[in-house]
Design a protein that fits this description.
Keywords: Signal. By secondary structure, the chain is an alpha+beta fold. It contains two helices and eight strands; from the N terminus they run H-E-E-E-E-E-E-E-E-H.
Length: about 150
């Protein structure tokens, strides 16, 4: 009886471990964006929340980029492990992105490409001391548009 009970417990434990592992999708983090070969006909909407991953010498640094319109310019903040910095400027032509953030030591620049769907930015962060790190920024889904569409039904 004890052996049978141990087998049942072992089987249940194995099933509990195997099901989530089999159900989860593999994540493929690529520091590349398949950029559009032509400029979009309408400006890309960059306002919103973006998840950030920067490769700092092989150590991942996660953060959140928050962008919104301030008059006619994009403005916002970037929160990383090291702290929160102000986005001084962000320019995009629909294919490339140039962002400058303020830090205590001086401006830090991000130059990259914008994916053709406008939901991913990939590029290189250049620090004032000459250090360069790869960074990828993925736009979060806009919860407000989902809430509006469900209210319209």
């Amino acid at each position: 009886m004890q052996k049978e009970m141990n087998r049942i417990i072992a089987g249940v434990a194995l099933a509990l471990v195997a099901v989530p592992a089999a159900a989860s999708e593999a994540v493929n983090m690529r520091f590349e964006c398949p950029a559009s070969t032509t400029k979009p006909s309408q400006p890309t909407e960059l306002s919103g929340l973006w998840d950030v991953l920067m490769d700092v010498g092989g150590v991942p640094s996660f953060g959140l980029l928050s962008l919104g319109m301030s008059g006619t310019e994009l403005a916002g903040s970037l929160a990383l492990n090291a702290g929160v910095v102000v986005v001084r400027s962000l320019k995009s032509d629909g294919q490339t992105v140039a962002m400058v953030v303020a830090s205590a030591e001086g401006d830090v620049r991000f130059d990259g490409s914008l994916a053709s769907d406008g939901k991913r930015m990939c590029g290189v962060v250049s620090y004032h001391g000459g250090q360069k790190f790869e960074m990828i920024v993925q736009k979060r889904p806009d919860r407000r548009s989902g809430a509006q569409s469900s209210q319209e039904r």
